[in-house]
Amino acid sequence: MRTKPTKDELAAAYGKTIDDVIAPDLDVLFCGINPGLYSGALGLHFARPGNRFWPALYRGGFTPRLLDPSEQHELLGLGLGITNVVARTTARADELTPDEFREGGRLLAARVAEYRPRWLAVVGITAFRTAFGLPKAKIGPQDGEIGGARVWVLPNPSGLNAHWTPAALGDEFGRLRTEVHSE
């Protein structure tokens, strides 16, 4: 179960990385922007309590129950994984530079080519646009592939992205799940 990091643990998490939850031939590799300090302190993806990634996975039908971030490795048994565009933790995504996003996109494409997921699902339209030089990309399925995987861009599940309600996030994740399971 999750424990709340202390102020000192949060400060010490700055610039850390979190191991990917990844294996070859996944159905979907979910890709966050970069880990926040809360996630870095706990070593878990999407760990901040206000983040809506885990509820959106459940509402979208990817998981049979709402998982806690501490259960992230259970995703592998469901054909799912997690990585990030930029590996280093920051307090806010706006601390990342466009060059970091572009380099992260290059490294992500190589990781996808190595692990061969069927789908890459990037959670965060602005990060996707910057990382892959696609300024007109929209939420949903994308034309073309990255590293051999089909691509779907999902809304950022951060609680700061308030114009996407939990229900709307779940619906968008569900659209991806329907596509993944229709193949």
Explain how this protein is built.
The protein has 183 residues and is of the alpha/beta class. The chain is built from 6 helices and 5 strands; from the N terminus they run αβααβαβαββα. A 5-stranded mixed sheet has the order 2-1-3-5-4.
Features:
15% strand; Uracil-DNA Glycosylase, subunit E; 5 strands; alpha/beta; glycosidase; hydrolase
Outline:
Keywords: Glycosidase, Hydrolase. The chain is of the alpha/beta class.
Main β-sheet: number of strands, strand sense, barrel status?
5 strands, mixed
Structural shape:
globular
What fraction of the residues are assigned to beta strands by DSSP? 15-25%
User: How many domains would you count in the coordinates?
Assistant: 1
Annotation, overall tally of beta strands? 5
The radius of gyration is 15 Å
Amino-to-carboxy terminus distance: 35 Å
Task: Look at the helices and sheets and give the structural class.
Answer: alpha/beta
Task: Flag low-confidence runs.
Answer: none
Q: In order across it, which strands form the biggest sheet?
A: 2-1-3-5-4
Number of helices: 6
The CATH superfamily label reads: Uracil-DNA glycosylase-like domain
The overall pLDDT, averaged over residues, is: 95
Order of SSEs, N→C? HEHHEHEHEEH
Oligomer: single chain
Question: Helical amount among residues, as a percent range?
Answer: 25-40%
The CATH architecture name reads 3-Layer(aba) Sandwich
What is the name of the CATH topology? Uracil-DNA Glycosylase, subunit E
